[in-house]
Amino acid sequence: MNVEQPKLQISGLSKEFRRRGQAVLALDGVDLAIAENEFVSLVGTSGCGKSTLLMIVAGLQDFDTGEVLVDGQPVEGPGRDRGVVFQSYTLLPWLTAQQNVEFALRAAGSKGAELRERAREHLALVGLDRFADAFPNQLSGGMKQRVALARALSYRPKMLLMDEPFGALDALTRHHMQELLTRIWERHRLTVLFITHDVEEAVYLSDRVAIMSNAPGRIKETIPIPLARPRRYDITTSAEFLELHRRVLKSIREESIRAAEMDEALAEG
Amino acid sequence: MPLPNRDGLTTSGAAPRRKRRPSSPFRLTAELTTPQFVGIAVLVFAGLLAAWWAVTASGLVAPLFLPGPGQVFGRLVTLALNGQLWEDAGISIYRIMVGFLIATGLAVPIGVLIGSYRVWEAAIEPVVDFIRYMPVVAFVPLTILWVGTEDPQKFLIIWIGTFFQQVLLIMDNVKRVPWDFIDLGRTLEMPERKILTRIVVPSALPGIWDSLRISLGWAWTWLVLAELVAATSGLGYRIVTAQRFFQTDTIIGYILVLGCFGLISDQAMKAVSRRLFRYAEARR
Ligand SMILES: Nc1ncnc2c1ncn2[C@@H]1O[C@H](COP(=O)(O)OP(=O)(O)OP(=O)(O)O)[C@@H](O)[C@H]1O
Ligand SMILES: [Mg+2]
């Protein structure tokens, strides 16, 4: 196997939706490669096609042209090699936190004592072992998303796909979740594709930030984040961090201004 | 001011004193204690009873049309003591159980199927929707021609009256299962059949149970209808016979008994639901 081969290789990807008989080009010529154990965030204005791209990589949605390769193999449908953390919590409400993790492990073929132990281990990883027997409606939003993270990690996917996993959380809980995710990622290393609206979150977490352009969606540029690891939350006030933050923000702003102008032109034309 | 902690829960550090809001029971979301709730319900029942008593005791209406509560309850006690009431009720309960179970046993799998697969929805939903709008009453003569006037005809009427509604309600429950739940099953590479049995059905179950509870209420109506038209036993039959002899007290007594049975079966279904789906209890 080629050592240089990226974990995930997306090339020339396009996807069209039909809405009331009209074609909407959601993605057009998306190129993106993610190396093994790399953490890449995807940012862009609302509606530019981030979720669509993630769903295609997850194999939950099909696409029109282009290629999506995982380890050089084309993606054909969803699989346990790619764990997904959805924005909605997707914990099954009739199962406890422990049982929710076990549910995934069982689907992955785990059994008996090993199953229970691994579920417990992963709940401990996200600091929720004390809440193993709580039902989702007894957990706060942040706790639910931690269980969802534990569940996605439990069956050891090669890649983690996260679509605005902390989008519904308040600022403080969000910071806590970001720290938790960084800590887990730095310890266990895993290829991550992470979608967010939050530029600070993207810069803090990532090795690279990919900025998406709008209508049609494609990768406009990727900005490497050479901040040292392990990262603690203090770095968010460092000059280096602020400079990267500014660069990413500028790139997105250019994009949203261009999109607004295009909307205007469309409205006038 | 309490600050949200890391999990978004608010903690009260210095235990701020709880401010007493003016608590009127007529505010939106205002809660009642269980004794308060029951008290109000009982009070309304008692009020209705008193009104009934006042109207009859004052001689405003002739006892032939509306006998007083005393006479009706006296009649019910007599019928209960000589066993007539229990015999009639037993037969009716048996009929409703069988009819309702057949309808439910068919409606649940079919509802789940057409809620989950568009192909089956296209094949079955329009037909069911069409039949649902046909008046059940009009089927009574037809069912008598088809299966006679024995128990099977009662089952059939209950089935016609509930099955089609149940299918559509259950389909709706299944359709409300979040797509993300199904996607979760897919990313875990669960086979379709397991996604259906392990994710879709349990997720829709509280809603399905509620739909069944509602349709059980309708089943009582259809049962009595069937018994009124053609039967030689059951609560509905006794009401028709009583009419023939101008026994208004029996008619009203049996109507009240039917109301009680409906209420009891509804409360029983609710109690089971509370036990079964404790996890789904809304946090308000
Ligand atoms: N099922 C669908 N049918 C039709 N159009 C769709 C569908 N899903 C997405 N789209 C369109 O494709 C475009 C991209 O949508 P997508 O959800 O991927 O955006 P996004 O970048 O994730 O936005 P947000 O940041 O708001 O979540 C949008 O214009 C959206 O309206
Ligand atoms: Mg999205």
What does this structure look like?
The complex is a heterodimer of chains A (269) and B (284). Chain A contains seven helices and ten strands. Chain A is α/β, with parallel strands linked by helices and 269 residues long. In chain A, the strands form two sheets. Chain A has a six-stranded mixed sheet, with helices on both faces. A four-stranded antiparallel sheet of chain A has the order 2-1-4-5, with helices on one face. In chain A, helix 3 crosses helix 4 (141-154). Chain A starts with 7 loop residues before the first strand and ends with a helix. Chain B has a single domain (81-283), classed as Orthogonal Bundle (MetI-like fold), CATH 1.10.3720. Chain B is 72% helix and 1% strand. Chain B contains ten helices and two strands. In chain B, strands 1-2 form a two-stranded antiparallel ribbon. In chain B, helix 3 runs antiparallel to helix 4 (118-132) and helix 7 (179-187) packs antiparallel against helix 8. Chain B is flat, with a radius of gyration of 25 Å. At the A-B interface, strand 6, helix 2, helix 4 and helix 5 of A face strand 1, helix 7 and helix 8 of B. The structure holds adenosine-5'-triphosphate and magnesium ion. Residues 50-51 of chain A line the site of magnesium ion (MG).
